[in-house]
Fold this sequence. Notes:
This protein is of the alpha+beta class. The chain has a domain at 12-114: Phosphorylase Kinase, domain 1, CATH 3.30.200. It contains 6 helices and 10 strands, in the order αβββαβββββαββααα. The chain has helices at 12-24, 78-92, 160-172, 219-232, 238-243, 249-265, and strands at residues 27-32, 41-45, 57-63, 100-105, 108-114, 126-129, 138-145, 151-157, 182-184, 190-192. The strands form 3 sheets. A 5-stranded antiparallel sheet has the order 1-2-3-5-4. A 3-stranded antiparallel sheet has the order 6-8-7, with no helix packed on it. The protein has a two-stranded antiparallel ribbon with strand order 9-10. Helix 4 (219-232) runs antiparallel to helix 6 (249-265).
Amino acid sequence: MLPNPVVDPTDRAAVEAMLGRLAGEELRLVGQLVEASNGVFLGLVGDGEDESGQAPIRVIYKPTRGERPLHDFPPGTLAQRETAAFLVSHEGGYAVVPPTVLREGPLGPGSVQLWIDHDADASPMVDLVAPDAIGEGVIPVFTGETPAGEQVVVVHRDDEAAARFAAYDCVVNNADRKGSHVLVDPTGRAWGIDHGITLHAEPKLRTVLWGWVGDPLPAAEVERLSLLESLLGEPGSALVQGLVGLLSEDEIASLAARVSALLAAGTYPEPNPGQYPIPWPPL
């Protein structure tokens, strides 16, 4: 199978062109990810027979009708949250979520996201190591034990990309940042996937990227937060216009409040009191 297109998420024109294809071209199903907890399908967008001669694009399609009800999220909203999470990433300059649209598909409305070809040989953002094997350039987050009784440590990279992911997850109130929800493409760029349980109005942050708790936010993160605060304060901005219809008024207001609170604090937040801060399973 040919490699899927690689889009530079910082190239707005390229991203907008990809969004146009994802939203406007024919979507065909070619398989299902049966291990997923919700209905998740592999699809192809485009038939390769148009005037441009562009090859079909592999995508992940998550129809609303395939969602498993959750006790703490409104039913039938995960596809909208996937799309909203992309909008925050795109408009806020985080560039961590693959291009994603909400559209009709063979099984009804759902999110359609560009498939990322994961480089299994790349250094992972999150890893599981023995206590005596913690190397340089990583931050230990928590310890654990394997079913065989071996002691292990979950670590994540100590670099700009991981710090950006951690800040983004705080912004979107990500309730499920597992290690496996970060993919690395053949160019070495890290991408975040599976954002269906984000952007709730109530605090729900669960992540493995806790290595900077209490540390000052880097200047680049403060700049992104300032941009988001400005965009969320403009009813006519592309971000606000895009979020309306995907999220409730309370959820949009809570997003704006989180951004302002992060800016005011100037640091990475502590875990929410009284809530388990790690997703399960963590990897």
